[in-house]
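2024-03-11 09:14:02 INFO worker-7 job=invfold-0412 stage=load source=structure_tokens
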């Protein structure tokens, strides 16, 4: 039993010695060093950036979901667009092609969200401008932007409707629309 204790102590001492010698090497470096992407990946990133800048605001995804989305691309698409009276309409939107403002080596975006509820003859039943704003600033161009919206329209009779969700690029001055037809079923 005593021999086992001595052996463990020796291993701990050896580990400590190794850690100290590695620390000495790390402190002797004068500048940071990272592995950088290869030329093909950098070229593809530049082409993607150019295509993004040439595009206008649009949606890569826009759909009714089962429950609220929990993150970028983390949603379950509804199999239909038929709702019971009083149900919550959950919508996932994934904007692309929005503009960036550059200031002091930071990139910012700002998107405002509005909606219109239309009946089957295009009458506006409800609307609200700029009820939500998506904005951010970082050292890189943040492109994984998403929005989870929830709507509850009380008192809608059974019938067919359209939910128009409008997103405005406050920097690039473009607008994208997600037109989502849905039905409210009779009880």
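2024-03-11 09:14:09 INFO worker-7 stage=emit residues=187
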């Amino acid at each position: 039993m005593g021999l086992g204790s001595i052996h463990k102590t020796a291993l701990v001492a050896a580990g400590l010695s190794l850690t100290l010698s590695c620390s000495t090497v790390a402190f002797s470096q004068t500048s940071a060093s990272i592995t950088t992407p290869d030329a093909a990946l950098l070229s593809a990133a530049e082409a993607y950036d150019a295509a993004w800048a040439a595009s206008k605001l649009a949606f890569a995804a826009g759909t009714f979901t089962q429950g609220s989305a929990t993150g970028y691309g983390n949603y379950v698409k509804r199999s239909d667009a038929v709702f019971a009276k009083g149900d919550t309409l959950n919508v996932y939107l994934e904007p692309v092609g929005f503009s960036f403002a550059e200031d002091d080596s930071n990139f910012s975006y700002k998107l405002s969200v509005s909606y219109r509820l239309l009946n089957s003859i295009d009458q506006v039943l409800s609307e609200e401008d700029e009820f939500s704003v998506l904005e951010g600033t970082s050292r890189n161009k943040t492109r994984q932007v998403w929005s989870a919206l929830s709507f509850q329209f009380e008192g809608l009779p059974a019938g067919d409707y359209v939910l128009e969700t409008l997103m405005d690029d406050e920097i690039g001055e473009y607008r994208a629309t997600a037109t989502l037809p849905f039905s409210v079923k009779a009880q």
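2024-03-11 09:14:09 INFO worker-7 stage=report msg="The chain has two helices and nine strands."
2024-03-11 09:14:10 INFO worker-7 job finished
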